[in-house]
Amino acid sequence: MRKMSVIEVAAHERANPLEVIEHMATANGWSFERATQDEIAILVRGKRTDYRVSFTWMLDIEALHLACAFECKVPDHCRAEVLKLLSMINERMWVGHFDLWFEDGPIM
Question: Do residues 53 and 105 share a domain?
Fold first, then answer.
């Protein structure tokens, strides 16, 4: 069986977009896990932190859900200000939003 290029996968009608994302992760040497055919989780190592990026393909509505979490230590005394800042950012976003998870501490 011949391997398809990323362009061929992207151009393939009704192709699962996660195939393109998997090819991108492989090409960049990022570790990933396919929990199901419709989900992929990627670990991208950055200079200051690692990024955990999850994609879910929802075929019934032809939508790709993206979630990205990264460690950002927010001291307890700064949480209110960070939440206020995230709220101001979210007001200006057309699609998506940022969250601060209190238990684990990542910003998503």
Answer: no
End-to-end CA distance of the chain: 39
Q: What is the pLDDT of residues 11-68, one digit of tens each?
A: 554 578 999 999 999 999 999 999 899 999 999 999 988 999 999 999 888 889 999 8
Kindly state the helix (H) or strand (E) to which residue 47 belongs, with its residue range.
none
In contact, 86 and 92? CB cutoff 8 Å: no
Domain extent for 39? 1-71
Tokens of 100: 């601060």
State how far the Cα of 92 lies from the Cα of 18, in Å rounded to an integer: 28
Do 101 and 108 contact (CB within 8 A), yes or no?
yes
Domain count, the chain: 2
- Judgement on whether residues 1 and 38 belong to the same structural domain of the protein: yes
